Amino acid sequence: MLNNFSRPRRVVITGMGCVTPIGVGREAFWHSLQTGVSGVRRIESFDDPRCPVKIAGEVRDFDWESQLTSKDRKHVPRTVPLALAAAREAMADAGIDTTDMPIEERRSIGVEIGTGGGGLAFAEKHYEYWYIGPKHHASVYIIPASTHGGLSSEISMAFGLRGLSHVVSTGCTSSTDAIFYAAQHIALGRQDVMVAGGVDAPLAPGILAGFDLMTVVTNDWDDEPHRASRPFAIGRSGIVVAEGAYIYVLESLDSALQRGADIYAEITGYGATCDAYHRVRLDDSGIEPARASTCSGGSVAITGPSIAAGATAFTVTPSLASSRAATFVSARIPAFDAA
Fold it and tell me: HEC profile for the chain?
């Protein structure tokens, strides 16, 4: 498998695309970040008075139909057009056009996509078709469409890519893990270019009711949705569920330099651990998340070392663990001048 391997190749990011609750496309997304726009609002995609969750991060002003042929629109979950739109923007941003690309070059481009829920919302809608109707609305592709496995293939088919096509599903870290595995494939010489990132669209009455049953979603900000996501606030009361897609183009540094591509960042390390503690809760010591950060061997290098401090707005334990992990890591990383 590694017969011709001598040293790991350097991996860089040369393209990115996104479809988010605060904007469709990089420019709209960045403008909303700069101006403090919130993507959390009252749910508009369905109206079910039985659903206890009233707010979410929905993608607005997204022409999902334009991403699919008329024949396919009935047969795929919302995650597919979200991922396709982000992937198309990322490929265009990277300056890669596969339209007339020789098959050997297309074999050198792979796909690695992360998702937590995949097509679960699509499956939920089909239970309604089967048990309430109309049954003829059900798709013959419900099985491959509602499971995670075919999601990356949708991107491969859209661009005619013949490299590996994999899906990673590791909960909240699915996208991060997918990006690393993609980088690893390039570093080890298995692929020259990877389309990698994540997508989710878990907004459906049954799914949201499940989150509510776990008592992890906030119900305190239905009248002020824009204030609901507050992971580091002392008065946080739970998470806000959202949808969206973020896709990147990764390639070897040599390839990017040869093409004259713009380089956003270099991926120099990754770390992952498991605290083996609970299905959904973190051990509040924060030791294992901190160890993942310190054993990564690097970071996503742009201007210098970086710490990504994450918290989920759960009421106590996960946010406490995240804070303690950040404390452990910051104690081990010296100050630096990012200028």
Answer: CCCCCCCCCCEEEEEEEEEECCEECHHHHHHHHHHCCCCEEECCCCCCCCCCCCEEECCCCCCHHHHCCCCCCCCCCCHHHHHHHHHHHHHHHHCCCCCCCCHHHHCCEEEEEECCCCCHHHHHHHHHHHHCCCHHHCCCCHHHHHCCCCHHHHHHHHHCCCCCEEEECCHHHHHHHHHHHHHHHHHCCCCCEEEEEEEECCCCHHHHHHHHHCCCECCCCCCCHHHCCCCCCCCCCCECCECEEEEEEEEEHHHHHHHCCCCCEEECCCCCCCCCCCCCCCCCCCHHHHHHHHCCCCCEECCCCCCCCCCCCCCCHHHHHHHHHHHHHHCCCCCCCCC
Quote the pTM value.
0.88
User: Which residue segments constitute the domains of the chain, with CATH numbers given?
Assistant: 11-267 (3.40.47.10), 273-339 (no CATH)
134 preceded by cis ω (within 30°)?
A: yes
Q: Count Cβ atoms within 10 A of the Cβ of residue 304 and give its class: 0-12 exposed, 13-18 middle, 19 or more buried.
A: exposed
Q: Give 144-170 pLDDT, tens digit per residue.
A: 999 898 999 999 999 999 999 999 999
Strand partners, 13: 250, 265
Could you report the per-residue pLDDT of 204-221, keeping only the tens digit for each?
999 999 999 999 999 999
CA 255/CA 193 separation, integer angstroms: 8
End-to-end CA distance of the chain: 42
pLDDT at residue number 331? 45
Distance in angstroms (rounded) separating the CA atoms of residues 244 and 22: 10
